[in-house]
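[scheduler] slot 2 assigned
[scheduler] job type: sequence-to-structure, two independent chains
[scheduler] chain ordering preserved from manifest
[runner] begin chain α
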Amino acid sequence: MPQMSRQDPLIEHHTVDYVPLAERHGKARDLFTLWFSTNIAPLPIVTGAMVAQVFHLNLMWGLLAIALGHMLGGIVIALASAQGPRMGIPQMVQSRGQFGRYGALLIVFFAALIYIGFFISNIVLAGKSIVGIVPEVPVPASILIGALSATAIGVIGYRFIHTLNRIGTWVMGSALLAGFIYIFAHDLPADFLSRGGFNLAGWLATVSLGVIWQISFSPYTSDYSRYLPADIGITRPFIATYLGATLGTILSFAFGLVAALATPEGTEAMVAVKQATGWLGPILMVLFLLNIISHNALNLYGAVLSIVTSIQTFASHWTPSIKVRVVLSGVILAGCCVVALGASADFISQFIGLILALLLVLVPWASINLIDFYIIKRGHYDIASIFRADGGIYGRFNLHAIVAYFIGIFVQLPFANTSLYVGPWANLVEGADLSWLVGLVVTCPLYYCLATRQKTQKIRALKLGYTD
């Protein structure tokens, strides 16, 4: 295998193919900066403000629920991320080793849909942020600026994304810290500590939101760790991803909560941030805008990899080039801009409801992925089979995984509490969507039993054949 030159190309040339050992590079700490910086953005801050404004928790109970939710959900994203160095392939391609070559297509489709949805919502948010900073810029132009900037980063790819987030960790981390200091250094409302209180529904809803937030990243976490050296192990990527993802989101959610409590009740979240941080507010808005654009590049990058994975499923000998990735990025950009320019005023809130509904399909996938990788196969996959037209040892369809997957979705439906669908048992704890918990509790043992039974039957058949 030829060694890479020291002058590596700026634009990433791999897509969904295996990253050879000779081309591996980077440190585990790169995963910390990626996931820390990515999560210091307006969307998690706005969501954190909901803890006081919608769920009516006070500061202490709100912070406790935020921390617990993200610390629990962070286990999933960290375990998924740690698979990258061992596998050397994107997360969705790896799913072929669990669902079969064609069986993996459904989850790849859902992943692409979620990435594209996030991309659209973020370019709308970026456009609004630009208008908020420079009112003279028309909204359509602002949306296009945000979209083109994110696309440029996504096209350049892996190295540039990591570089931007290394810088962003220091810049955004310092800015958020300065925001906290400013708020607490000035007079706070008399009800800052007493506004809200404890209610079980709101507390569980906040915990669930934290868990779901982290799980939503799991379909593409190993995309950003697959270039790390294969001998880096599991522990270091796990710790780096876990700390980055949980600390970044906990701080952002907490900042939104504090800003909401530091301003009059009912103040819109980002307006509350501006009011609570005084002269620092406009600076934070500019930094948040830059981070929206940087973070949105991950959504485009993931969408492109998912679409390429889908196409390559039917063309096993096709290895996409840089040009293919650039063209696909352009097509996605054009389509998303059309949708974003026609988006309604409440598009983002509607989209968040859609994403929470779609997460019903991610929970059983994450359960199967982690059980298969860490308990059943223990990280040992045949990479050549994953890319074979017939699926190799994994076949075209793995019925055990597919059955467990659909059962994992169906058992969640009675407990689902989303804007699109409310199940008959959704209000066992009013306002809290606990369907994810049911999905995990059912899918994990079910898939383990089905997969190990299949393995036992194969061993028994081999023994009988040998005996005969």
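[runner] end chain α
[runner] begin chain β
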Amino acid sequence: MRVAVVALGKIGLPLAAQFADAGAEVVGVDTNPRTVDLVNAATEPFPGEAQLAEKLARLVPAGRLQATTSYAQAIPGADAVVVVVPLFVDDATWQPDFTWMESATRSLAEHLTPGTLVSYETTLPVGTTRTRWKPLIEEVSGLREGTDFHLVFSPERVLTGRVFADLRRYPKLVGGLSDAGTARAVELYSQLLAFDERPDLPRANGVWDMGTAEAAEMAKLAETTYRDVNIGLANQFAVFADRAGIDIYRVIEACNSQPYSHLHRPGIAVGGHCIPVYPRLYLSTDPDATVVRAARQHNAGMPGYAVERAAEVLGDLTGLRAVVLGAAYRGRVKETAFSGVFATVETLAARGARVTVHDPMYADAELTGLGWEPYHLGEEVDLAIVQADHPQYADLAPSDLPGVRLLYDGRAVTDPARWAGVPRLTVGGGA
């Protein structure tokens, strides 16, 4: 089996490695020559993905996996083309920006050969596979979907850093534009993936036929939007708990002690490529989803709420030395996509604070390149705000932040026992 994977990013490259490891001949196409060169040298283009380095070291020299910048080399003759090109959302309008995906779709369609299965794994608004990609591929290729090629949607459901484990853990959802296309996709993914036993599921773990592309598209949007809405609810509870002097973490622990409550944890920000983005993709086709909109807006406002709480304690922030601890959007991940660091730094600076940024995963030059002044533990500071739950921050003490007058722990990751004598706040007033 020959498989082409379009876009070798933090999801696409592990997918390509998984497919090659399962026995397929895989060609990955990417527009970044550096990424292509590194993959062909069996070197990770990005750190932190468990098992990826080992798989590249084994599969690339064996000729099972290669990369190219040429669609003409990757697409013709492929049994399947798997598309994992990023989809962006305009921050102002909340509308999807299909620029990169349309370019990639045109390029693959120019070289598409009859008999190919095309599977989109990038999360999409409901209806996109049928109403946008089908006519575009048919127009450019001159081929007819359902006769000359099949088109399906099969969303990735993995987290960076643990892609291979998640591929085994979660059912693979597939929805086509026809029964024949769906059957082809079920056969493909059944050959390329292996699954853990999951007695907790209503049916056997494996490749699940969703019936239509639209159902598969909605399933991915719904499962991720649920998380954003749940976090938004937890954050609203936390804001009330702050006013009422209640420890929201004890409340959540109590609520979740019975099986019908699954409250998430509140926090200073919701970041990453998925949770802040996919609710907006859903809203692009369901603008009347007021619950979804309210949750997204509330979560987006949490960095500003954290700074406001700090100002309630310290007063005017003008001239104060403030450090944001954590550039990454979450602990253990070297990625700033939609990280709360941006809004936190911007809000602090707007109030006149002198802002620095610390992150154990980033070198000074990298932080400077992102537009921030690096901070080093041991330097004088007035205010510290924990933005990412890196494990290194669990052991922070006032001695690490000389002169600190307030710690605002936006992730409730620090040890309150270490902060006796120094004001320490969390989102929701808990330990």
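[runner] end chain β
[qc] chain β: The chain has 15 helices and 15 strands.
[scheduler] slot 2 released
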